Amino acid sequence: MTASQILSAIAPQFDSDPNRNSHLQLAVKRTNSVCFGENYNYAIALRAAHTLTVTQTAQASGGAGGSITSKREGDLAITFSTPSSSSGGSCDDLCSTSYGRELKGLIAGNLPAVSVCGIYKPPCE
C-alpha cells in the first residue's frame, strides 16, 4: 500500500484536508527509508497523520499546542497539556497525538543496531 492509502485507512478524517499532500511530502523528507524498511510507507502515513492532527488542534485552539485538558465557558479558559512520556524517557512532540505515539513505537522497533557481521543500521529519524 502507498503512504496515501495507509493515511486514508488510519485517518480518513483527513482525506478532504487541502494540505494532506503537503503533509505527506513533508513526512517523506523526515522519514528514513533504510531504517523502516517494509514499514516505510506506514511510518510516512503515521507522521503525516500526526502533523495533520497537530495542525488541526492548533487551528482549533488559536495556535496553542498540546491537547486540551480542561475548558470553561464563563470567562473562557482553556488549559493545554504538556506532552510527557509515560516511560520516563525523553518525549518530543510525537507524544502529543496517538499517531505520534504509534510512530514512536515503530521507531523503537527499528532502533539502530550492530549485527554480528558488523552492519550498522542508520537511525530512524
Q: Could you characterize what this model shows?
A:
With 125 residues, the protein is mainly alpha-helical. The protein has a domain at 3-63 and 94-108. The chain is 43% helix and 7% strand. It contains 5 helices and 2 strands. The chain has helices spanning 3-10, 20-29, 33-36, 40-60, 98-108; strands spanning 68-72, 77-80. It has a two-stranded antiparallel sheet with strand order 1-2. Helix 1 (3-10) packs across helix 4 (40-60) and helix 2 (20-29) crosses helix 4. The two termini are 22 Å apart. Mean pLDDT is 79; it is low at 83-90.
Write a concise synopsis of the structure shown:
The protein is built from five helices and two strands. With 125 residues, it is mainly α.
Strand content: 5-15%
Counted beta strands: 2
Mean pLDDT: 79
Radius of gyration from CA coordinates: 17 Å
Alpha-carbon distance between the two ends = 22 Å
Most strands sheet: 2 strands, antiparallel
Number of helices: 5
Order of helices and strands: HHHHEEH
What overall geometry do the principal axes of the alpha carbons give? globular
Look at the helices and sheets and give the structural class.
mainly alpha
Helix content: 40-55%
Throw out a few tags for this protein.
mainly alpha, 7% strand, 2 strands, 125 residues, globular, single chain
